[in-house]
Amino acid sequence: MNKSHYTTLIKEEASRLGFLACGISKAEFLEEEAPRLENWLEQNMHGSMNYMENHFDKRLDPRLLVPGAKSVVSLLYNYYPDKEPEWNGPKISKYALGVDYHKVIRKKLKALLRFIQESIGQVDGRAFVDSAPVLDKAWAAKSGLGWMGKHSNLLTKQMGSFYFIAELIIDLDLDYDTPVTDHCGSCTACIDACPTQAIVEPYVVDGSKCISYLTIELKESIPEGFRGKMDDWIFGCDVCQDVCPWNRFSQSHREPLFNASPQLLSMTRTDWMDLTHDVFEELFPRSAVKRTGYEGLRRNIRFADET
What we know:
This protein is α+β, with helices and mostly antiparallel strands. It has helices spanning 3-16, 33-42, 56-60, 101-120, 136-142, 189-193, 211-217, 239-242, 262-265, 269-273, 277-283, 293-305; strands at residues 21-26, 71-78, 91-92, 125-128, 147-148, 154-155, 163-170, 199-201, 204-205, 233-235. It has one domain. It contains 12 helices and 10 strands. Keywords: 4Fe-4S, Cobalamin, Cobalt, Cytoplasm, Iron, Iron-sulfur, Metal-binding, Oxidoreductase, Queuosine biosynthesis, tRNA processing.
């Protein structure tokens, strides 16, 4: 069998497993991303995310992560909810409404890798779900799954941007897809709407100003300069995606594990202000919100309420 047949097998199985799309690119050094990443780090746009400074070469060359790697299989998994949450209080990003996506997608990635090994033969590789030094969006764009929007999220004409990105890096030679063109045009909706002006120029986000960073990654107190600018977000932020015209084409996901619990959606502002550790555990038993922890979420709630 030839690589075209293998490519078709992989993409068909990815679709069967529920992935929104699958694109494949050659595992090689990301030459265009290298100066962008270096400049972003030099300007301290990563804030306190010191881990972004680590493994610089591995972020740019998948062959350093998987010896002998030949292909990067990029996959999209939809998380757009059936109904826009009608919050009675502080807001949580759509991606964190249900079960932690790492758990859901990693299981499917491992199933895809097993399928490849069982159907094709001895293929070595690793699965990645936003948990290693991999430039997910760059690989997805290189694989033709979309283009990088001015808010730095991957965009597609068919589905907008509400999806997770994951990869399999494998030592199998396959047919490679080609990048698509940019369709942002003269639109600046995301730049204009960002509550903290974190999109400092088209395609460049100062992570240290982003509400997602402030409510999740930042472990210290939120700087006073952001008081009154958090737009009621207590975990993540969807503003730049919500205002993007391409997200008019978002379609509801089909993953029950991503659905929000009735208890979460019924929370009032008073409920959030009175949040106890026990209720936190009830609301987020297997959620990405666990990343900020109870005390971190309480900090975010108080900061949002005081604005």
